[in-house]
Amino acid sequence: MERKEISKAVITRLPRYYRYLDELLEEGVERISSGELSKRMKVTASQIRQDLNNFGGFGQQGYGYNVEYLYEEIGKILGLDRRHSLIIIGSGNLGQAIANYGNFERRGFVVNGMFDVDRELIGSTVRGIRIRGMEELEDFIRDNDVQIAALTIPKTQAPAVADRLVAAGVKAIWNFAHIDLTVPDDVVVENVHLSESLMRLSYLFCSKRDGKHKRTGGMEES
Amino acid sequence: MERKEISKAVITRLPRYYRYLDELLEEGVERISSGELSKRMKVTASQIRQDLNNFGGFGQQGYGYNVEYLYEEIGKILGLDRRHSLIIIGSGNLGQAIANYGNFERRGFVVNGMFDVDRELIGSTVRGIRIRGMEELEDFIRDNDVQIAALTIPKTQAPAVADRLVAAGVKAIWNFAHIDLTVPDDVVVENVHLSESLMRLSYLFCSKRDGKHKRTGGMEES
Q1: Whether residue A136 sits in one domain with residue A106
Q2: CATH code (residue A64)
Q3: In a 10 Å sphere around its CB, with 0-12 CB exposed, 13-18 middle and 19+ buried, how is residue A116 labelled?
Q4: Which residues of chain B have pLDDT under 70?
């Protein structure tokens, strides 16, 4: 299917559509209008029509969208109809949380290796996945056709490890380290910077509270 | 200080400025021009000037920005000059990862309580923080002036727990559950939906690979 270039903003919204469509499928809903979807997702119906139009318009006037078809098509666009081999570098709490999240596997992301520098972790398993030493990294990537690596290590080590991943052929890095990675053009990076997320929450919280009390400088006294 | 309404896009970028300014301070850099900052952050200098103009323009023509001043001002805007009391609901791997992340504390986010329903976890501690049963939730929130709650529990339980948090007076929810929460107007929510982030990575990865090989339907054979 020929597709036009999809804007970054639309891509950012697609996984959310996918999640809602998944819920609708679970509820046994076969068809949904942009109006009903709009109410559920709390975005305007025109936004929904505009977004879904990017894929050739799955909606039929008066009939609404076929939920299963739309779910599958968006899944294909997101690459969820394929199996992705994923490794996790950094097997602390965060790495283990990702390894334990069974839902990823349902979506085609199969964690088949974990790595760490901690000798006490190496050799143990998480949900059946063995934690390996970093010296095994390159061989493992080559032998297992690894495409995606989650980086759950401190920022000081992240750039050097990212370089090793790229040299070994990894094309997608899911970066949880609090640093921006520099990678070649054919490698993609998706950042999850938790501290930035917490700062945004803090901003929203403070500005809402200050707004209510009319900002006068400090506000602890209010 | 009077401030104009700041757009959501700018707010989203502020924590990243803050992180870079923090690094510059660590390196002992006192002043930086929008051009130099642009090179580091890989955004245009005009974007930087536009963004930072929102706060009354900290830059002086020819002198550049005073790093420490800018760092402190953005910190104030983000509410990082105050102490926030934070609790974590869900003390599994993800909850423990957040509790163990010492950097949050440095930014004023002090985790002083963790909760879970798992009797095997209750009573144990993470970095000195005791894990409590959910029956203690409301009293703890009231007694400790808790402002922010991180929700690291399955999506099925998230809405009911969010209702309890709101009823007990929590005004900010850091939501890791894969569901959109419905909260009153005076409560703010920041979502961290890891599976959506992974889907975005998958999309970027697949579209880059397909682009190179010219999409013809399937691509596993290429």
Answers
A1: yes
A2: 1.10.10.10
A3: buried
A4: 1-5, 55-62, 212-222
With 0-12 / 13-18 / 19 or more C-beta atoms within 10 angstroms meaning exposed / middle / buried, residue B96 is: buried
Domain containing A61 equals: 8-77
- The residue out of B77, B112, B132 marking a domain boundary is B77
3-state DSSP assignment of residue A125: strand
Contacts of A135 (CB under 8 A, 6+ apart): none
* A125 and A37 housed in the same domain: no
pTM over 0.90? The answer is no
Q: How many separate domains does chain A show?
A: 2
CA distance B81 to B27: 22
Mean pLDDT confidence for A58-69:
77
Q: Which residues of B touch A111 (CB under 8 A)?
A: none
Size of interface A-B (CB pairs under 8 A): 176
Number of residues written out for chain B: 222
What is the rounded CA–CA span in Å between residue B191 and residue B93? 18
pLDDT the model gives residue A134? 98
- Per-residue confidence at A102, pLDDT binned at 50, 70, 90? confident
Contact A148 B201 (CB under 8 A): yes
